[in-house]
């Protein structure tokens, strides 16, 4: 479908934007690295730039420093932020290659310069936080440790696969997601108005964990300093909360007649 769309509209499409391997805010939807390879090939075939938004998946989250590495591809633009500063200060960067750079680098008289910046571009404090984060990657085996933690998360995921109201368990590196459904056999979702994910958040908070489900998708995307013991506790709490909110009727029972929960997120 992507190839057909690019073929039909190649002359009007400037670029394809993807979140490599995991669409995070979209519900922790995951695809195989092969999809990226095929998308890269399709973009090349039709002369369309490929933009990889690795703001969430970059810096070791999916098991490699950048998610694109798992597909062996190079995007035309790479967007980075979040993990770049370890989350301590806001900074984002867009990297691109020489082809793009040269398209804007010319004699002044040709007026092709791309004059674009933000008020706080290159903020020195944020830049220092980014350098400190990169030093941590250089000084310790962050990716190796993440692989151990990811393996532990995979072990913890086991029991969730047989839960009567979990329709899908998916993981990529240090992202693990459980999708709560009314009927796993048909993957029939709960009516969205019931906001069962919100109840998971409320029950988890009572138990000392901050889980922030996306709709009915409960997920772990923990900081890299988390320990195995903390992951164990997180899984215990997630299990308890999923048990509670998949009971019928809802324990909080506060769905309003118009379908909205009485409790504001
Ligand atoms: C957080 C996030 C953004 C927004 O990044 P900003 O630096 O806040 O603009 C964009 N894309 C993805 C995938 C994100 O996770």
Describe the structure.
This protein has 7 helices and 9 strands; from the N terminus they run H-E-E-E-H-E-E-E-H-H-H-E-E-H-E-H. The protein is globular and about 70 Å long. With 265 residues, the chain is of the alpha/beta class. Helix 1 packs parallel to helix 2 and helix 5 (142-157) runs parallel beside helix 7 (228-245). Strand 7 and strand 8 (175-180) form a beta hairpin. The model is unreliable at 256-265 (pLDDT under 50). The protein folds into 2 domains: 2-139, Type I PLP-dependent aspartate aminotransferase-like (Major domain) (Aspartate Aminotransferase, domain 2); 142-245, Aspartate Aminotransferase, domain 1. The chain has helices at residues 2-9, 33-46, 98-104, 124-139, 142-157, 196-206, 228-245, and strands at 15-18, 22-23, 29-30, 49-53, 77-80, 93-96, 166-172, 175-180, 217-220. The protein has a 4-stranded mixed β-sheet with strand order 1-4-5-6.
């Amino acid at each position: 479908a992507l190839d057909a769309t690019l073929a039909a509209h190649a002359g009007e499409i400037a670029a394809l934007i993807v979140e490599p391997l995991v669409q995070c805010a979209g519900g922790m939807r995951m695809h195989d690295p092969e999809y990226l390879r095929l998308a890269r090939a399709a973009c090349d075939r039709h002369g369309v730039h490929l933009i990889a938004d690795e703001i969430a998946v970059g810096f070791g989250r999916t098991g490699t420093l950048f998610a694109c590495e798992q597909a062996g591809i190079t995007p035309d633009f790479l967007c980075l932020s979040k993990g770049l500063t370890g989350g301590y200060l806001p900074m984002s960067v867009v990297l691109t290659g020489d082809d793009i750079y040269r398209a804007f680098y010319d004699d002044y008289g040709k007026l092709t310069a791309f004059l674009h910046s933000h008020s706080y571009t290159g903020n020195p404090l944020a830049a220092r936080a980014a350098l400190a984060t990169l030093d941590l990657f250089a000084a310790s085996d962050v990716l190796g440790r993440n692989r151990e933690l990811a393996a532990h998360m995979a072990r913890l995921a086991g029991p969730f696969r047989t839960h009567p109201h979990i329709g899908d368990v998916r993981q990529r590196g240090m992202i693990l997601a459980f999708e709560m459904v009314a009927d796993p056999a048909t993957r029939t979702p709960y009516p969205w108005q019931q906001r069962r994910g919100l109840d998971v958040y409320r029950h988890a908070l009572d138990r000392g964990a901050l889980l922030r489900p996306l709709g009915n998708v409960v997920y772990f995307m923990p900081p890299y300093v988390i320990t195995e013991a903390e992951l164990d506790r997180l899984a215990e709490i997630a299990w308890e909360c999923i048990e509670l909110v998949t009971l019928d009727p809802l324990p909080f029972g506060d769905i309003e007649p118009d379908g909205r929960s009485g409790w504001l997120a």
